Amino acid sequence: MSVVEITEYLAIDLTDTVWLCRRCGQNLGAADSNYKFGCLVADRDPRDVHPPVVEGDYTFAPDPTWCRIVEFYCPGCAVLLEVEYLPPGHPITHDIEIDIPELKKQRGLSIQ
Amino acid sequence: MSVDSVLIETGLKPEVPSEEELAAATTLKVGDYEIFSENLMLMAQEGKEVMTKMGISSMLHSGDTLVAIYTAAGDLVTAVCGTLLHSVTGQIPIKFILKHFADDPSVGVAEGDVFYTNEALYGGIHNPDQFALMPVFAGEKLICWVVSGAHQSETGGSEPGGEIPAAKTRHDEGMKLTPIKIGDNYRLRTDLLKMMENFISRAPRMQVTDVKARVAACDRVRIRIQEMVRRRGVPTVQGLFRRMIQETSAGVRNRISSWNDGTYRHTVFMDTTGHEDSLLRANIALTVKGDKVTISFDGSSPEHEGSYNAFTSVIRAHCAVNLFEFPFHDFPLSSGMMEHIDITVPKGSFLDASPEAAISCSPLVGGLVFPLLGSVLSKVMYSSDQRDQVCGYTSSSASAVMVSATNQHGVRVTDFMGYPLNAYGLGARHDMDGVDVFGFPHGPWGKAPDVEDIESEFPLLHLYQHQMRNSCGYGKFRGGGGATIAYIVRGTKYAAFTSSQKESRFPAHNGLFGGYSMTTLPGLQVRNTDVLERMANGQADLPTDDYELAVAEKNGTLGGEVILEHQTRGVRLLKEGEILAASTQGSGGYGDVLEREPAKVAEDLRNDVISAEVALSVYAVVVDPDRYIVDVEATERARADVRARRLSVGKPFAEWIAEWSLQRPAESALGWFGEWPSGKPNRDVIRI
To answer: Considering the entire predicted model, what is its pTM?
Structure first.
């Protein structure tokens, strides 16, 4: 089997060596790279998701000058593939970096 | 200071077994392993029962405990918890005693000896965690050690409660005993117990009683092991110990081999140093290669002048908790697990600070490991046979509120509030919601005391205590919710509180695979209030949760002043009738919120798990607020609108990152982050 399920929404096609969206099959780029490069991205005010109750420094919502919610969408079906809570401008995380040649070897596929 | 850093960094791995032990393991008869390994666990369980029945501090009763058996060389054989942290931290003091004292004629190790320690520099977590250690001999031969540990809620520090948010250095944190011999020939030394009473003068009775409880637990297990030795012989017992380590080692190795090779990363942020609000970054990179795992925390923020620092032993022990509970939960609880796992913690980071640093609040720092390791392990395990275990693990922040007062019975009490500490939310799983107010991730056996227990022991009245709306992380499957809790001081003139918490500006959990984090919470107090009079008058609209308490002054439902601050609080002295909230966050969600079944959203709304605003604005589910019935067509339209908005608002990565990279957090966030964004040290840390 050349398609390996990696997360709820991501798979790797070992034949073409690419990331795929598991909901719609959208190609999200080279499997040895970061799938986030193939996503649509938006950063949101955390108060959109966590409603504040009062005004001031401590509101029951994350401080929007400290924290943003970075969302990664599949460009094919718009499913929310992954979320990061990051300070504004902070580098994104290369969260899954699988050893593709080793995975191919385990599955009996040619490394080329 | 004689810190043995080599021992601390290597001591969690099992020592090289002797030929005698290896040979003994091969000579076990059919059924010996299966029967007697269970027997050893029952011995430890008996020891724990002895400790619990004899001890008095609330943490000892709520389960922050351990009784465990270690080989003669100090490797974990089996444990009954309590707290999994202590199962591994028990190893280092034994190895330290063997390495530095066994051949020292002024100390030595002999049958009937009792050692004691609470110094985190010797491989522990923080000085509230106190351990008794007893060697067990068969004739002249040392065959094993027994260790019992429990968290003690007073250490004689600059503030009451053991965890001291205001501490600046180790010198503010009270009693720290290196491993010392406090008894020999089965008898405790009165002079050393008096010394402890002197250190712990806020709660001397609790200290000495609980020392004796720990020692009694060790001694009971010692007796049982020696009975086993008499019945079965030394080789069988030694072989059993070795086989228990081997079984874990083999199981863990095979499981790691089934995972996809690669590197898995995650980053979380803490929003306080304990003294001031600041972002601190904690990074993890977990690499699987063949049958080995390496875990690195490189790139984490530098140490700082506040109290929220840790030592490498704290981080390693929190890793062990996660590994024992999560991917390797079905193997014997022994040191064999760590044989295949290497952990590196950068020196000089807030995860491995200088020995002079304040670390009594280190579980708050170590707790960052839970979402870090939980996330990367979930990403490892999703494509393995362990998919059914994938979850966001737990949140990272309990509500560790401590109270110190003379209670309504005239007795001086200083203790943690056991309920909020055991009220974490459990993260959503890949196939179901998380668990509301599930417990204490350091040791899921912990139990939360009843309201009545707390009110009979402490001068406190609960204004409210129940599950908290909108405290879970949202997702296809939602995280477990937390609890909203507020105490009124009653039956004493004054009570002092501290609280070691985090996540008032920035949550330390991300959710998983598109799920959202839980939210943040402020620290709440109400001063000069008239709540007791209003209760006596039968006022019907008193605040029933933190949300209502936060606006009680504005709405006129309480008199007095409502104060919102960070949850991390040094000592706060409250008068009778004043209020302090001690609520807990839930945990992260799993998957895209638009994939949550609309009927489950309606059920959450009916059960007060979420608000109507969240149902509509986050889940895009249209629900009749009176009958809790989903408008299916309106929901489909609302969700289609959200998807369309994502496609229009979302930008291709290159375009988005070009704009994103120009941003920077508020300067107030970067006081102790380190250089932005590398996190390299950029200021001196001054400790006097």
So the answer is: 0.95
